[in-house]
Design goal:
This protein is an alpha+beta fold. It is about 45% helix and about 10% strand. Its EC number is 2.7.7.19.
C-alpha cells in the first residue's frame, strides 16, 4: 500500500507541492475544451446504455452459474444460492472511457465452475445462442484468458476468476489480499485488473485531475501510434500507472502542468528502472510470484517495467521490446519539446496531438496480409495473428542483433475489395549510429519470416482458408487503401526527429568549456557560477535573482526553481547521470558546499568566487553568512530538499551500477573466505608436523 506516514503518496517525496498559477488555470481550460471538441467524452445516452448492458450481463452470468451448479449434481437449494458477480475495471472503472469504447469486465465464480469447461464451454454456448450477442471470440490461450464479444452493440472483454469459495457473496471485496488464497496464476492475473484499478484511484491525490490528464495522454498515445499493448507499446493500464506516478510527484498541479511534467520526467527516465506507485508487497503465505529481478532471472530482461501496485506485483508492460521502447522514448522527447514551446507561446495543444505520419517516416515496411473463408474464421484468425505479431518483432531484433529496428503500427487496414482480409504494417530502419561490417548493409529476413509463419500455423483451431502472406514493400509502393479516402497524400517534408532542448545544448557547451579549462590546467572551472545566483559587481555580498513566475510547478520563493526541479527529476529517474547532465547539478552543489549547506563530491573543486569578502566589511559579511547558514534560510531549505530526494528502488539486474556493486561485494567476500580457508590449512598442517 501507499506510504502515507510521511504525508505523501508514492515511494518518494513529491518533486513540488506548489499550487497552480493563473496561467495553469487558463491552459487547463484550453486543454479540456480541446478534449471535448475531439469527442472524447461520452454522452448521457451512451452512459445509460452501458449501465443497461452491465446489468443484463450480470443476469446472464448468474443464470450460467446456476446451470453449472445443477449440472455438477448439487441440490436445488444450493443451486438457488449459487452466485457469480460482474466487476468492471480499466478505462470504464477509472472514468476515462470515450464513446464507443469497450468495457473491461471480470466474472467472479465459485470453485466448482472451471475456466476451460464451464466458462469457455457452457457460458460461451449460452452467449452464442443469444441474439443480443455478436462477434463472439474466445481467446483461452492468452496470457490473461478472455472472451471478446459485442453485447447489445457494446464491446465487452470478459475475464474469469475462479475463487476458492463455495458461494460468492454479493458484497465481495476483491481488494482484500485474502481473496487470492488457493487460486491459480490465471485467476490471480485476471483479478489483478480490478484490484489495480481500485488501488490506483486510492493512490492519486486528486482523482479529477488524474482523470483529465489520463484522458489527454490516452488520446495523445493513439494519435502518435504508441497505444497498443498487444503490439508491444503501452495499453490503458500502463498509461494509467504512468500518469498516476506523475500525479504523486506533483500533487497540487493542474492537468496542463501534469501533461508537461509527464513528458519531462519520462523523456529522461533511465529504463529499465521500474515505475512504482507504492512499495512492492510480498506475502509468502499466499505463494504468488512477485516481480523481483533480484530473484527471478526473466524479470531482469524486461525493457520498461511499470509495476502494478496490488499484490502480487507484476510488470504490466512485459510486451515492450527494444524497438517499441525506442519509438516511445522518441515520442516522449518530442512531447517534452512541444510542451517547452507551449510555455513560450510558440505552440498549442493542436501541435502536441498531431497525427504521427507513419507511412512517411520510413523507407521500408513489412506488410502482413491475412485472410480467411468467412467472417467467423477471419475473426478468430485475426485475433491469433495480432497476438503473435510481437513475436515477429522480437525475432527480427534477435536475428539482426538489434541492427534492424522495427516499428509496428498498432492497428490494421482493410481493403474493401477483398472481404475477410486485412493488413498489418511494420516500419523498418537500420539502427542509427551503427557501423555495419562488410555484408551487413542488407538483411535477409526470409528465414525469420518463414519461422514466424510456421509458428502461427500451429494454431489449434486452424481451418483451411486461413492464410498469411508477409512481403517487403517500399514507401512508394504502400497500397492506397491505407490512406484516408484511398488517396495517397503528397509527400511532406522529411519529419524532424526530436532534438535536444536549448537547456541541454547550453549544458553541453558549459561542459565543453569546463573540459577545455581542465585540459589547459587553468582554474576557470572554479569561476563557473550557477544560474540566477552570483556576486554583485562591487563584490560586497550575494544577489539572488528573482525566479520567473510561471507554470513550472515550483514555489516562487524557492531558489534555483527550474534547476532544482531538473535535478530532482534526474535523481528520480534513477541510474547514473551522463556527463552532460551532471555539470548543472555539480555546480549547484559546489555553491551550496561553499555556503556550508551541503557537501559536494571530493573529485570536484569548490567555488572560490563566493568566499566572504575581506575588504573591511567583515561585520556585514558575517551577517550575510549567518543568514545563509540559518536553518530557515532559502538556501538551507533547498539543500535539505536536494538531500531528501530519494532514488527509485534499484534491483539487481535492473540497474547496471547495482549489478556492478553486487559483483564487487561478492568478490570481496570471496577473498575473505579464501584467506580464512588458507589460514585454517596452515594451522592444521602445523599441528600435523608438531604431532610427528
Amino acid at each position: 500500500m501507499a506510504n502515507q506516514t510521511n504525508g505523501h503518496l508514492g515511494v518518494t517525496e513529491p518533486i513540488s507541492l506548489s499550487g497552480p498559477t493563473e496561467t495553469d488555470f487558463m491552459r487547463t481550460q484550453e486543454l479540456e475544451t480541446f478534449l471535448a471538441d475531439a469527442g472524447l467524452y461520452p454522452s448521457h445516452d451512451d452512459a445509460v446504455s452501458r449501465e443497461e448492458v452491465l446489468g443484463r450481463l450480470d443476469q446472464v452470468v448468474k443464470s450460467w452459474i446456476r446451470r453449472v451448479s445443477r449440472s455438477k449434481g448439487y441440490n436445488e437449494q444450493f443451486v438457488q444460492e449459487a452466485n457469480a458477480k460482474i466487476f468492471t475495471f480499466g478505462s470504464y472503472r477509472l472514468g476515462v472511457h470515450g464513446p464507443g469504447a469497450d468495457i473491461d469486465t471480470l466474472c467472479v465464480g465459485p470453485r466448482h465452475a472451471t475456466r476451460e469447461e464451464d466458462f469457455f464451454g457452457v457460458l460461451h454456448s449460452m452467449l452464442a445462442e443469444m441474439p443480443e450477442v455478436a462477434e463472439l471470440h474466445p481467446v483461452p490461450d492468452a496470457h490473461v484468458p478472455v472472451m471478446k464479444f459485442k453485447f447489445m452493440g457494446v464491446s465487452i472483454d470478459l475475464l474469469y476468476a475462479k475463487l476458492a469459495l463455495l458461494v460468492v457473496p454479493e458484497d465481495l471485496d476483491i481488494t482484500q489480499n485474502s481473496i487470492l488464497e488457493n487460486v491459480d496464476e490465471q485467476t490471480a492475473r485476471s483479478l489483478n485488473g480490478c484490484r489495480v484499478t481500485d488501488l490506483i484511484l486510492r493512490l492519486v491525490p486528486n482523482i479529477q485531475n488524474f482523470r483529465t490528464t489520463l484522458r489527454c495522454m490516452r488520446y495523445w498515445a493513439k494519435r502518435r501510434c504508441v497505444y497498443s499493448n498487444v503490439s508491444g507499446f503501452l495499453g490503458g493500464i500502463n498509461w494509467a500507472l504512468l500518469v498516476a506516478r506523475i500525479c504523486q510527484l506533483y500533487p497540487n498541479a493542474l492537468p496542463s502542468t501534469l501533461v508537461s511534467r509527464f513528458f519531462k520526467v519520462f523523456a529522461h527516465w533511465r529504463w529499465p528502472n521500474p515505475v512504482m506507485l507504492c512499495q512492492i508487497e510480498d506475502i509468502p503465505s499466499l505463494g504468488h510470484t512477485v516481480w523481483d529481478p533480484r530473484r527471478y532471472y526473466r524479470d531482469r530482461f524486461q525493457h520498461m517495467p511499470i509495476i502494478t501496485p496490488a499484490y502480487p506485483a507484476m510488470n504490466s508492460s512485459f510486451n515492450v521490446s527494444t524497438s517499441t521502447l525506442r519509438v516511445m522514448t522518441e515520442e516522449f522527447q518530442r512531447g517534452d519539446e512541444v510542451c517547452k514551446a507551449m510555455e513560450e507561446n510558440k505552440a498549442d495543444w493542436k501541435t502536441l496531438f498531431e497525427q504521427y505520419p507513419f507511412f512517411e517516416s520510413y523507407k521500408h515496411y513489412l506488410q502482413i496480409d491475412i485472410m480467411a473463408e468467412n467472417e467467423d474464421d477471419f475473426r478468430q484468425w485475426h485475433g491469433w495473428i495480432e497476438s503473435r505479431l510481437r513475436i515477429l518483432t522480437l525475432k527480427i531484433e534477435k536475428y539482426t542483433y538489434n541492427m534492424l529496428q522495427v516499428h509496428p503500427f498498432p492497428g490494421d487496414f482493410c481493403d474493401k475489395a477483398k472481404p475477410h482480409s486485412c493488413s498489418f504494417f511494420m516500419g523498418l530502419q537500420k539502427k542509427q549510429g551503427s557501423q555495419p561490417n562488410e555484408g551487413e548493409n542488407h538483411f535477409d529476413m526470409r528465414g525469420t519470416v518463414e519461422e514466424f509463419k510456421q509458428l502461427v500455423h500451429m494454431y489449434t483451431t486452424w481451418k483451411p482458408g486461413m492464410e498469411i502472406h508477409i512481403t517487403h514493400v517500399k514507401r512508394k509502393d504502400i497500397p492506397r487503401f491505407v490512406f484516408p479516402g484511398g488517396v495517397r497524400p503528397q509527400r511532406p517534408a522529411r519529419p524532424v526527429r526530436p532534438s535536444r532542448s536549448k537547456l541541454s545544448d547550453a549544458a553541453t557547451a558549459m561542459v565543453g568549456n569546463v573540459a577545455s579549462a581542465s585540459a589547459n590546467g587553468s582554474s576557470e572551472k572554479n569561476q563557473i557560477q550557477p544560474p540566477d545566483l552570483h556576486l554583485n559587481a562591487n563584490g560586497d555580498g550575494l544577489r539572488v535573482s528573482e525566479p520567473d513566475v510561471g507554470s513550472s510547478g515550483i514555489k516562487d520563493t524557492d531558489l534555483f526553481s527550474k534547476e532544482a526541479e531538473d535535478i530532482a527529476i534526474k535523481k528520480l529517474t534513477g541510474g547514473s547521470l551522463p556527463e552532460v547532465e551532471v555539470s548543472d547539478e555539480l555546480d549547484e552543489l559546489h555553491y551550496l558546499e561553499s555556503l556550508g549547506s551541503v557537501k559536494a563530491p571530493e573529485t570536484t573543486a569548490t567555488t572560490s568566487a563566493v568566499a566572504a569578502p575581506s575588504d573591511g566589511n567583515g561585520e556585514e559579511a558575517g551577517e550575510v553568512q549567518n543568514q545563509i547558514f540559518s536553518k530557515s534560510s532559502p538556501l538551507k531549505r533547498k539543500a535539505s530538499e536536494l538531500e531528501a530526494v530519494e532514488l527509485v528502488p534499484t534491483f539487481y539486474g535492473a540497474n547496471p551500477s547495482a549489478s556492478e556493486n553486487t559483483q564487487r561485494k561478492t568478490l570481496k567476500y570471496f577473498k575473505i573466505v579464501l584467506s580464512y580457508i588458507s589460514f585454517l590449512v596452515l594451522v592444521l598442517s602445523w599441528k600435523y608436523d608438531f604431532c610427528l
